[in-house]
Design brief:
alpha/beta; seven-stranded mixed β-sheet; five-stranded mixed β-sheet; rod-shaped; binds adenosine-5'-diphosphate
Length: 608
């Protein structure tokens, strides 16, 4: 019984273990670079699904586009055109003018002077700087231009293949620069200095979620509301109170053009304007913390585990499908709350755990069903067998007692009848005892002694007991190769097992054949073999030979077959002693039954 009682506990532990494995795999897989790439694509997809077009942009992009550059003499003439543009927009009173062109070197003195004077008359001017590729040095505006600026911001390119984020902070050498968009926003909102904590940047009353460890990355909420006008346009959009971003946009001239989550290419200056809009709308997104991702994945795994542990059939599958839908919806719900939730980790956690739990339920339930089916079949077989086997002693008892009651028998006859009744009732009692024993042995209820005993002694005693049976059939019962060894366990049960193998060998062998017994040590085991030259068994029969009540056709035909439970008891006994049974057999040629039994510890030390 003991082992059966542990079974539900083991199953539960196994279930928890496979679900934990599913959770661990989902979490680990969620951190691979493959998952990162797929999470990025999922981000872009969610971005498009939740896209909104904000009204009333606070910024305008003035672009040196193909048309403007064509009309004004191209990049060679850019400083003159820039000066003219600044003069043109000064009267419109923009709140900030951010120029995404790095004016680092000296040009034509006249042109430079013209530009310098236009710059110095521009209120809240933000100039651009960038880190020179492969160095720790800033490419700065020329000092006399820099002196006219209210701030110098970086226009460093974002590293992702798709420009989802803008690093608000770039450090090179000893200098740290805030992004041009952030500087523009600071001046636009009239805030003082930018303050910072580990997780945020504070500009006036705006708290921007931007963690230091990510270079203060700001997720840009691209919208379509920012007007983009060509510098050369006769009529510009209204600029009053707006942040004006000036930059170069044609493919051939712009240094930076990136793919956005919306699936369109955008120039650097537009990206900065979009980052500015994100800041001024305070439309922030921040990535979910590791612990919250782990907690959601764990919750999904536990939910899947509970569904398939407590619900079965189609309701379980329906709930599983609901759980999968929840996992798919989680990143969307998080997004609407300004949180970027990874897509794959919860998805994998849900799919893996639902799949594992559903398979577990399918196989365990099926196994239990099969087990109860075979238990039922065995029980029926047992009942059938018992009624059949008990009939003959009962008939004998019934017949004898009837004769004794009906006829006036002489003393000798009466004694014979009484003896027969006595013998048959004892046989019945033995039969019942055997049944009870085997049931108790199977259930692990039977107490098994643990004592050291001499194996050779047991074998010899059994041989002696079996000798008369062998002689009756002129079978030569021979002992070969008996190595002295000590076993540990129940001597009586072991005797039962050995004797059973010997009587089987004699029963299922024709007259005048040979039965040999050997006992030799190998590693830390004793191999006790009984080999006969009897009827043998085919492979299919061999597979069933240790089942209760199993008898081969040939054995039944020979008239020697018994109850068919002896070998099942032998196997139980060997199993309880920590050993195993091995059988080889050829139909018509003979069989060899071997008990492989662990030697008692002390005996192992003695070399064979
Ligand atoms: P039984 O009381 O019928 O011998 P067992 O459980 O000891 O019951 O054996 C089960 C069946 O296995 C036998 O009925 C017989 O068909 C087969 N069997 C057992 N031992 C041998 C053997 N040495 N040679 C051939 N068949 C055997």
């Amino acid at each position: 019984m003991k082992s059966r009682r542990q079974w539900p506990g083991r199953v539960t532990l196994g279930y928890i273990a496979i679900l934990s494995g599913a959770f661990a795999v989902a979490m680990i897989a969620g951190w691979t670079s493959l998952a990162e790439g797929m999470d990025g694509s999922a981000y872009d997809w969610i971005f498009k699904v939740h896209r909104s077009t904000p009204a009333n942009a606070s910024s305008v992009v003035l672009a040196f586009d193909e048309a403007a550059l064509g009309q004004t003499g191209g990049m060679r003439n850019i400083r003159r055109t820039l000066a003219a543009t600044l003069k043109r927009i000064a009267s419109e009173a923009p709140s900030v003018v951010a120029i995404d062109i790095i004016l680092s070197d000296k040009g034509d003195p006249l042109e430079d002077e013209e530009l310098r004077s236009a710059l110095s008359r521009t209120r809240n001017l933000v100039l651009a700087s960038d880190v020179i590729a492969g160095t720790q040095t800033w490419e700065e505006p020329e000092p006399s231009f820099k002196a006219t600026a209210a701030a110098v911001g970086h226009v460093h390119a974002a590293p992702d293949p798709v420009c989802r984020r803008l690093p608000l902070e770039v450090i090179a050498g000893r200098d740290r620069r805030w992004a041009m968009a952030l500087e523009a926003y600071r001046l636009h909102s009239g805030a003082g200095a930018i303050e910072e904590s580990l997780d945020t940047i504070v500009v006036g009353s705006t708290e921007v979620p931007a963690r230091r460890e990510t270079r203060r990355a700001l997720y840009i909420r691209y919208g379509e509301g920012v007007p983009v006008a060509s510098v050369s346009a006769a009529k510009l959009p209204p600029l009053q109170g707006k942040a004006v971003f000036i930059g170069v946009t044609p493919q051939s001239a712009a240094r930076d053009r990136f793919m956005t989550p919306n699936g369109v290419m955008m120039s650097g200056v537009e990206i900065h304007a979009q980052a500015f809009e994100t800041l001024s709308r305070r439309d922030f997104l921040s990535p979910a913390s590791l612990s919250s991702v782990a907690a959601v994945c764990l919750a999904l795994t536990i939910a899947a585990g509970c569904i398939f542990a407590f619900v079965s059939g189609w309701p379980a599958y329906l709930l599983g499908a609901v759980l999968l839908a929840v996992a798919h919806a989680t990143p969307h719900v998080a997004w609407t709350n300004g949180i970027i939730f990874p897509y794959l980790a919860p998805l994998w956690a849900a799919w893996l755990s639902v799949f594992t739990a559903a398979s577990w339920q399918y196989f365990v339930v099926r196994r239990q069903l099969m087990k109860s089916e075979s238990d039922r079949a065995r029980y029926q077989q047992a009942i059938h067998f018992v009624t059949h086997e008990m009939r003959s002693p009962l008939t004998a008892i019934q017949g004898s007692s009837e004769l004794m009651g009906r006829y006036n028998l002489n003393d000798a006859k009466r004694k014979q009848m009484a003896d027969m009744i006595n013998a048959e009732s004892k046989r019945l009692a033995r039969m019942i005892q055997t049944f009870l024993d085997i049931e108790r042995l199977t259930d692990g209820q039977m107490e098994i002694r643990s004592e050291s005993f001499d194996a050779a002694d047991v074998i010899q005693q059994c041989l002696q007991r079996a000798q008369p049976l062998a002689e009756r059939k002129q079978i030569d019962l021979r002992l070969n190769d008996l190595e002295p060894s000590t076993l540990r366990g129940d001597r009586e049960l072991m005797e039962y097992a050995v004797y059973n193998l010997l009587t089987n060998a004699v029963k299922y062998s024709p007259a005048e054949t040979l039965v040999t017994v050997t006992a030799h040590r190998k590693d830390s085991f004793l191999h006790v073999s009984v080999r006969d030259q009897g009827i043998g068994m085919d492979e299919k029969e061999l597979r069933s030979v240790f089942q209760k009540f199993y008898r081969t056709k040939k054995a039944e035909e020979s008239g020697e077959a018994g109850t068919g439970i002896g070998l099942s008891i032998v196997e139980q006994i060997v199993h309880h002693h920590g050993g195993r049974m091995e059988v080889t057999s050829t139909p018509g040629k003979g069989s060899c039954f071997t008990m492989v039994l662990p030697l008692a510890p002390a005996s192992k030390l003695v070399s064979p």
